[in-house]
Design a protein that fits this description.
Elements: H1 24-37, H2 44-68, E1 76-79, E2 84-85, H3 100-112, E3 119-123, E4 129-133, H4 135-144, E5 148-152, H5 157-171, H6 176-188, H7 195-202, H8 206-216, H9 220-223, H10 237-246, H11 248-259, H12 267-286, E6 289-298, E7 301-309, E8 314-318, H13 324-337
Helix pairs in contact: 1-2, 3-4, 6-8, 10-11, 10-12, 11-12
């Protein structure tokens, strides 16, 4: 009995384009047709194997084409925020988690029911996760008691550092102190060979990297004078460092007074007072008063003292900082007095 070969296998018969990728049921049907025709026909087993191999190859190519569209895409997952830790180069100061901006972010996430923009984490050897970027969003979800949307990526220390720095700098400007502290830790841990290499990796001017590091290196007594180190601006770093270098005792004394205050004045007032203390101390040494001084007090607190130099000049020394408005009022008082 002659073997009947299906039309799609007959010599000279072309397969139509729309049937190039056949469903597996069609392929199975074709194989069944061959088997049903005659299982003893010469070459039938080879033909069946050929049909199966061709179908598998076509299906694999189709799957590869579909998967290619997902190349480089990191899948998003929901994770308990308590399983996620801050990284060794975390660049957000704790004061970032209680300000107005943070509360607005927290309300936004609460209303949406989730952080619509996921954070990025990487796995650790302990089986937990470590934040690459998104510290504020993570903390907001933790405080709200909801799971956090994350992207999990397999990153090394250097790549993790670069992605965190760029993401945070673009999303909400980091303070000079935060940037400097982060850069200093990276250099100390040998993540980069030099400041220049670090600046090149994160795409930042090396001069700004140097300024940020100098601010994070300010004496602790000066930093504590401010409500938060993130209040210290880039342009103040050099003057604060020079002021401390010129007259360490006077600057330390002035800064310590601010540090002890429960309600501190604006950062600019603190900055100006500290810088003035470095020069004012030198002036005081040259203008030693003669005789007794008259003190101005409020309760048990000394506010100021009034004395006279050997040359007859009257010197008023304030023991407390004055705001700009207070200085203006003092000026008006002096003009009306004399």
């Amino acid at each position: 009995m002659a073997t009947k070969i299906p039309k799609f296998l007959q010599k000279g018969k072309d397969v139509k384009p729309d049937s190039a990728i056949e469903p597996m049921e069609t392929v199975a049907s074709s194989v069944s047709d061959l088997e049903a025709t005659s299982k003893t026909a010469p070459g039938l087993n080879m033909e069946i194997a050929s049909v199966r191999k061709s179908a598998m190859l076509e299906e694999n190519e189709d799957l590869k084409h579909q998967l290619k569209a997902w190349d480089g895409v990191t899948p998003m997952r929901k994770i308990n925020p308590n399983l996620i830790d801050r990284g060794p180069y975390a660049n957000r100061h704790e004061s970032n988690f209680d300000g107005v901006d943070f509360l607005e972010l927290k309300d936004e996430i609460k209303n949406a029911g989730e952080n619509t923009q996921p954070i990025k984490v990487r796995t650790t050897s302990t089986g937990r996760y470590e934040i690459v970027y998104g510290h504020r969003r993570h903390e907001a979800c933790r405080q709200l008691g909801i799971q956090v949307n994350v992207l999990i990526d397999d990153l090394g220390d250097k790549e993790s550092f670069v992605q965190m720095e760029r993401e945070n700098r673009n999303r909400k400007d980091l303070s000079a102190w935060e940037q400097g502290a982060m850069y200093s830790r990276a250099l100390k841990n040998g993540l980069f060979e030099s400041q220049n290499k670090l600046a090149e990796a994160i795409g930042l001017d090396k001069g700004n990297v140097s300024k940020a590091i100098s601010i994070s290196s300010l004496p602790e007594v000066v930093v504590k004078a401010f409500h938060s180190p993130i209040d210290i601006q880039f342009r103040w770093g050099k003057e604060l460092a020079e002021a401390f270098s010129v007259n360490q005792n006077a600057v330390s004394k002035c800064a310590a007074k601010f540090a002890s205050m429960k309600e501190k004045p604006k950062a600019k007032v603190i900055f100006e007072s500290i810088v003035a203390a470095s020069t004012g101390a030198n002036t005081e040494e040259q203008q030693t008063t003669t005789g007794s001084e008259i003190e101005a007090t409020k309760g048990e607190q000394k506010l100021a003292s009034i004395g006279e130099t050997k040359t007859g000049r009257v010197v008023v020394k304030f023991d407390i900082p004055l705001t700009t408005d207070q200085r203006i009022e003092l000026k008006k008082f002096i003009e009306s007095l004399i």
